[in-house]
């Protein structure tokens, strides 16, 4: 099997004032928090968004493992909808010392290129900054960070930087070039 060079960039924002909002895509797009943790819904979002960009690390998790992750205080999933249909999501993962990682962010393939991603990233990043307001035992956010890689969508890095994120680390590695998992098992 052949190998590819994979570059991973870690980006951060250290002040809520650094957030540069994207234009709103239109009234048919809404973003809501999934307030009831649902392993099935989260797995659907993960597999659907990541089907063509090599998201595989969570595909082998059991339902109990998904539930344990989602039940952690401060973990939040915000979902973009196009007239009621899920279009993408952003998952916030609280870490110690006022740090919030944008663990996953993306759109289902059919919804890419419609200016939904910038809007969703804007709202999700703002929710990372005010996470402590919804989770009283959490200290205020002082840093929001995310990583993206050369296998993510072609506009991912540009979207993060346009929202105000700055690169703080770049890593390169050789890895096996594997096919994407596809939208359905065995597809």
Description:
- With 187 residues, this protein is an alpha+beta fold.
- The chain is 25% helix and 33% strand.
- It is built from 5 helices and 7 strands, in the order E-E-H-H-E-E-E-H-H-E-H-E.
- A 7-stranded mixed sheet has the order 2-3-4-5-6-1-7, sandwiched between helices.
- Strand 4 and strand 5 form a beta hairpin.
- Helix 1 crosses helix 2 and helix 3 packs across helix 5.
- The chain is globular and about 50 Å long.
- The protein starts with a strand and ends in an 11-residue tail after the last strand.
- The model has no long low-confidence stretch (mean pLDDT 93).
- InterPro entries: Acyl_CoA_acyltransferase, GNAT_dom.
- Pfam families: Acetyltransf_1 (PF00583).
- This is GNAT family N-acetyltransferase.
Topology:
Blueprint (H helix, E strand, L loop, with lengths): L2 E11 L15 E5 L5 H12 L12 H8 L5 E7 L2 E11 L3 E9 L8 H14 L1 H4 L8 E7 L6 H8 L2 E11 L11
Parallel strand pairs: 5-6
Antiparallel strand pairs: 1-6, 1-7, 2-3, 3-4, 4-5
Helix pairs in contact: 1-2, 3-5
Task: Calculate Rg over CA atoms.
Answer: 16 Å
Number of helices: 5
- Helices and strands: which structural class? alpha+beta
Could you give a short account of the major beta sheet?
Answer: 7 strands, mixed
Task: Put the structure in a nutshell.
The chain has 187 residues and is α+β, with helices and mostly antiparallel strands. The protein has 5 helices and 7 strands; from the N terminus they run E-E-H-H-E-E-E-H-H-E-H-E.
């Amino acid at each position: 099997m052949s190998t590819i060079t994979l570059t991973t960039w870690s980006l951060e924002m250290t002040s809520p004032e650094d957030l540069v909002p994207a234009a709103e895509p239109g009234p048919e797009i809404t973003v809501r928090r999934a307030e009831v943790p649902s392993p099935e819904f989260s797995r659907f979002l993960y597999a659907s968004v990541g089907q063509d960009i090599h998201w595989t690390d969570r595909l082998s998790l059991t339902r109990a493992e998904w539930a344990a992750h989602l039940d952690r205080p401060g973990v939040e999933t915000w979902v973009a909808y196009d007239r009621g249909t899920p279009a993408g999501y952003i998952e916030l993962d609280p870490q110690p010392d006022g740090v919030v990682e944008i663990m996953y962010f993306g759109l289902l393939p059919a919804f890419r290129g419609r200016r939904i991603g910038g809007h969703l990233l804007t709202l999700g990043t703002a929710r990372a900054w005010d996470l402590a307001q919804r989770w009283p035992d959490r200290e205020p956010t002082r840093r929001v960070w995310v990583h993206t890689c050369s296998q993510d969508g072609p506009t991912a890095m540009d979207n993060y930087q346009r929202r105000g994120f700055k690169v703080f680390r770049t890593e390169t590695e050789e890895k096996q070039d594997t096919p994407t998992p596809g939208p359905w098992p065995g597809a």
